[in-house]
């Protein structure tokens, strides 16, 4: 026996119609091969169950009443068979095991094999036959040898299967669906079909709304018009009836889910007020035509259907792209209807003798006697009265006065309402313009008050002009601010995703990553000549060009290094801390004309990258490549120059003041000569290890290690703990020493330098390894510079080896060294100082090498870890990275590259 499938359910989004199909017959059921049998026991009480005659066949009764079989098959035999074989007694009160059926079954047990064969042939196909045969063989065995015990386990398993399939059957077929062939439609109340249908019903309502009163007042049904009017009337009534049918098949939301069960739909509609209103609308009062003759007012109940018309208007207003046009049309229509009804009322009164003086009510031209003329006259009078324009015939009787006063008061309110509506519509039409103008005025007033130069004021006004011309909102976030996040996300994806996809770095990245980014993009508009970023600034955003042209320029702003167009991006180097200058801009970028850019905040970028480590690796790789590309062009020299000329590249946060830094100086413990070491460094290409990416850095470190450079513990807070631990581990109790002033400052410089390499605490991510010439930093005012000597020059390969140290401490050697330059000091002193300095430098460089090795080791570990994580991500489908802890990310964000 096979599983009965769930009825297929299709929801047509376009039309709002849900089509539900229930198979026409049991034979139509798409049967599944998983199940051996389904025996569904009726819930009916035994006394209510009729045990009909059943159709006896050669193989026994075909139908055992009281048992519903999934496909009209009789499986009770199987159950009965099991029952007989089972030691468990089933309650005999159950209709399933009624004596009669049991006897029948028992008597026909010999024919079980053929019956099961038939069932099997009919319903089971292919590989399922095997199972059925096993099942039959099993039953046969059980039957042939009554002593043969059926394994309890198997029986239980089968019982469970039956129960499970029974439950599936129960859930998959509602009572209505079991009846048979059902092609049913369920209309989605928010779908388009529903809308169109409400439009049709509204037309029927409007027909009644306009025609009924007109007929009653001016031109009642007569022999000439009877066919036309009755046809139209009953056509409208048919539409009303169909509307009731439509409501029976209109879904509704139950706990937020569209309910499609037909019985529930019926119940829902019939329990609603709408049902009664719809029935009331169709109350056939027109049968009274037969007794009182044609009187259209008998159809007045049809007007109750106005609720459908209002619903239609509401929905149209919500959905239309021209709400103000719609509102105007709607208002005009209401006005005309009111005039129409008022005209009809006026005519009815005048027709029936008015309030005593016919002339006041009907002072029309004598030539105007046909119905149309009468109608127009009344409509004119009605318009005059309701718009309070006046010029009405003067009333003479009390009734006329009263009537006119009521008319005028009503007209006054109507007029006020109309004015209010019109004002609203006009306000809405110009709301955007007004808001824009208000903002501009505020800015203008501010600029005037603050005496902003004229050219800047002009620039601002031109910026507003552009904004208005391009129909852009200056505050797009605000426009959709009140929407729920999910909707905002969808809008953002729709608006920005295309732009994002065009950007090389975001191509082939995970969709989730893009979606996250898209939500954080902020549109910004720049005017001609605006600098979006300037070289040397701390990079806090990256930009994607949506429209416009920008130029990447050098410091002086004259040399154009590259031109960026729509789809280009820039500013990524510094926010990824990839540049030679760490988080500093490597170039300036200027807008040529007006440029629409999307701005992506550094913090946001890192927040997203935290969850997408694979994307991060990719992004960094691209950035490194791009950086290398830049470096091949003229920017290379400029960027390098800038990195030398920009001290203070390192953010000082987290760093220990130089004076407070404990020193742990050590002597070189290796025989390798410092000169060899330095000349080694010197021979390295200038920019090779500085900024050409991780690989070149790693090479430089490898070189150092290969050459057996002396390794020292790092002095400084970065690895202070590591040093301490090491000292403790080796049993060393050597305390931190306080260095002499020069030592301290030199060491501090080294610390400062090494801090660049790895912010605290050590990051689990790959960090940039140091390069010897990164000590090459220009002096600035307020800093002492140690002049280079010939020897130093040799050491630093021609570059001026300035060490960046703090302002001279009174009495310190640095101060004295500086002062030598102006006072021609004693050569011996100078030589001694130089010697000392060189020694110090050698020590520092050696320590630097040590640090490099440690960093290299860390980098290796981190890469390993990253690889593991990527593997995990592949395995788990992109679960959040476990390494993404807040502090680590912060460190990563603030990580500096080597200077
Ligand atoms: N030569 C170049 N060609 C194109 N773009 C560049 C060039 N140099 C720098 N940039 C971009 O200009 C940006 C300036 O800020 P960033 O250093 O953060 O990132 C830089 C790069 O994105």
From TrEMBL:
PROSITE patterns the UniProt entry points to: CNMP_BINDING_1, CNMP_BINDING_2, CNMP_BINDING_3
Main location: membrane
Keyword Membrane in record: yes
Spans annotated as Disordered: 74-113, 644-704, 877-899
Gene3D superfamilies, A to Z: 1.10.287.70, Helix hairpin bin (1.10.287.630), Jelly Rolls (2.60.120.10)
One Pfam family linked to the record: cNMP_binding
Membrane-topology annotation of the record: Multi-pass membrane protein
Location of the protein in the cell: Membrane
Cyclic nucleotide-binding domain boundaries: 505-609
Record's compositionally biased regions (Basic and acidic residues): 74-84, 890-899
Signal peptide (from-to): none
InterPro entries for this protein: CNG_cation_channel, cNMP-bd_CS, cNMP-bd_dom, cNMP-bd_dom_sf, Ion_trans_dom, K_chnl_volt-dep_EAG/ELK/ERG, RmlC-like_jellyroll
Alphabetized UniProt keyword annotations: Ion channel, Ion transport, Ligand-gated ion channel, Membrane, Transmembrane, Transmembrane helix, Transport
Compositionally biased tracts (Polar residues): 85-104
Transmembrane residue ranges: 195-214, 226-248, 274-298, 401-423
SUPFAM superfamilies cross-referenced by the UniProt entry: cAMP-binding domain-like, Voltage-gated potassium channels
Domain of life: Eukaryota
PANTHER family, sorted: CYCLIC NUCLEOTIDE-BINDING DOMAIN-CONTAINING PROTEIN, CYCLIC NUCLEOTIDE-GATED CATION CHANNEL SUBUNIT A
Identification of the protein by name: Cyclic nucleotide-gated channel rod photoreceptor subunit alpha-like
Organismal lineage: Eukaryota, Metazoa, Ecdysozoa, Arthropoda, Chelicerata
Gene (name only): LOC106457207
């Amino acid at each position: 026996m096979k599983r009965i499938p769930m009825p297929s359910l299709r929801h047509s989004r376009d039309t709002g119609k849900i089509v539900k199909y229930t198979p026409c017959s049991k034979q139509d059921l798409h049967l599944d091969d998983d199940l051996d049998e389904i025996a569904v026991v009726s819930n009916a009480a035994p006394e209510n169950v009729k045990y009909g005659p059943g159709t006896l066949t050669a193989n026994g009764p075909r139908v055992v009443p009281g048992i519903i079989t999934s496909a009209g098959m009789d499986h009770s035999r199987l159950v009965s068979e099991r029952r007989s074989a089972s030691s468990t007694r089933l309650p005999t009160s159950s209709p399933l095991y009624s004596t009669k059926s049991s006897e029948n079954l028992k008597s026909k047990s010999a024919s079980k094999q053929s019956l099961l064969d038939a069932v099997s042939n009919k319903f089971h196909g292919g590989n399922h036959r095997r199972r059925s045969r096993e099942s039959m063989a099993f039953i046969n065995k059980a039957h042939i040898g009554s002593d043969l015990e059926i394994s309890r386990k198997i029986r239980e398993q089968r019982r469970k299967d039956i129960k499970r399939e029974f439950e599936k059957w129960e859930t998959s077929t509602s009572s209505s669906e079991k009846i048979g062939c059902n092609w049913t439609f369920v209309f989605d109340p928010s779908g388009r079909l529903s809308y169109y249908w409400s439009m049709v019903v509204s037309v029927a309502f409007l027909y009644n709304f306009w025609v009924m009163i007109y007929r009653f007042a001016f031109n009642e049904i007569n022999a000439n018009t009877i066919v036309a009017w009755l046809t139209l009337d009953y056509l409208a009534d048919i539409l009303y009836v169909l509307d009731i049918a439509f409501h029976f098949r209109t879904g509704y939301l139950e706990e937020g889910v569209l309910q499609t069960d037909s019985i529930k739909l019926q119940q829902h509609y019939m329990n609603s007020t709408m049902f009664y209103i719809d029935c009331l609308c169709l109350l056939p009062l027109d049968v009274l035509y037969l007794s009182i003759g044609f009187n259209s007012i008998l159809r007045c109940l049809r007007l109750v259907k106005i609720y459908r018309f209002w619903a239609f208007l509401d929905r149209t207003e919500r959905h239309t792209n021209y709400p103000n046009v719609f509102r105007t049309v709607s208002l005009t229509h209401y006005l005309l209807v009111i005039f129409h009804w008022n005209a009809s009322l006026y005519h009815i009164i005048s027709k029936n003798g008015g309030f005593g003086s016919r002339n006041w009510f009907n002072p029309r031209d004598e030539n105007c006697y046909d119905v149309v003329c009468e109608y127009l006259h009344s409509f004119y009078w009605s318009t005059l009265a309701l718009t309070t324009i006046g010029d009405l015939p003067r009333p003479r009787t009390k009734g006329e006065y009263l009537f006119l006063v009521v008319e005028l008061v009503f007209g006054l309110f109507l007029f006020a309402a109309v004015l209010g509506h019109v004002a609203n519509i006009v306000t809405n039409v110009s709301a955007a313009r007004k808001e824009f103008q208000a903002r501009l005025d505020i800015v203008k007033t501010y600029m005037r008050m603050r005496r902003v130069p004229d050219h800047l004021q002009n620039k601002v006004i031109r910026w507003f002009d552009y904004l208005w011309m391009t129909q852009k909102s200056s505050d797009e976030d605000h426009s959709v601010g009140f929407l729920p996040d999910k909707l905002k996300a969808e809008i953002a994806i729709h608006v920005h995703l295309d732009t994002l996809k065009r950007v090389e770095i975001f191509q082939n990245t995970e969709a989730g990553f893009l979606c996250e980014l898209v939500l954080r993009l902020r549109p910004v508009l720049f005017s001609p000549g605006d600098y979006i970023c300037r070289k040397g600034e701390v990079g806090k955003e990256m930009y994607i060009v949506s429209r416009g042209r920008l130029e990447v320029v050098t410091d002086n702003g004259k040399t154009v290094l590259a031109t960026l167009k729509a789809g280009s991006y820039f500013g990524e180097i510094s926010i990824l801390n990839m540049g030679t200058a760490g988080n500093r801009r490597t170039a300036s970028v200027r807008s040529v004309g007006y440029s629409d850019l999307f701005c992506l905040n550094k913090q946001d970028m890192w927040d997203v990258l935290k969850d997408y480590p694979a994307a991060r690796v990719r992004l960094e790789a691209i950035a490194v490549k791009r950086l290398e590309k830049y470096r091949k062009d003229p920017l290379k020299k400029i960027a390098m120059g800038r990195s030398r000329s920009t001290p203070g590249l390192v953010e000082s946060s987290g760093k220990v003041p130089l004076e407070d830094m404990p020193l742990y100086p050590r002597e070189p413990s290796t025989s390798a000569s410092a000169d060899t070491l330095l000349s080694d460094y010197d021979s390295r290409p200038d920019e090779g290890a500085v900024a050409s990416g991780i690989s070149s850095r790693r090479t430089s470190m490898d070189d150092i290690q290969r050459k057996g450079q002396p390794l020292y513990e790092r002095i400084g807070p970065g690895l202070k703990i590591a040093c301490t631990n090491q000292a403790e581990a080796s049993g060393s109790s050597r305390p931190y020493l306080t260095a002499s002033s020069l030592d301290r400052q030199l060491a501090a410089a080294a610390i400062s330098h090494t801090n660049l390499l790895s912010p605290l605490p050590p990051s689990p991510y790959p960090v940039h390894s140091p390069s010897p010439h990164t000590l090459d930093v220009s002096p600035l005012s307020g800093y002492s510079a140690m002049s280079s000597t010939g020897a130093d020059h040799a050491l630093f390969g021609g570059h001026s080896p300035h060490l960046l140290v703090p302002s001279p401490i009174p009495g310190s050697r640095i101060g004295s060294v500086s002062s030598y330059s102006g006072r021609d000091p004693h050569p011996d002193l100078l030589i001694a100082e130089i010697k000392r300095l060189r020694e110090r430098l050698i020590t520092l460089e050696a320590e630097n090498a040590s640090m490099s090795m440690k960093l290299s080791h860390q980098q290796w570990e981190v890469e390993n870890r990253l690889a593991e994580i990527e593997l995990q991500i592949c395995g788990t489908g992109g679960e959040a990275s476990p390494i993404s802890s807040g502090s680590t990310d912060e460190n990563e964000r603030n990580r500096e590259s080597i200077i």
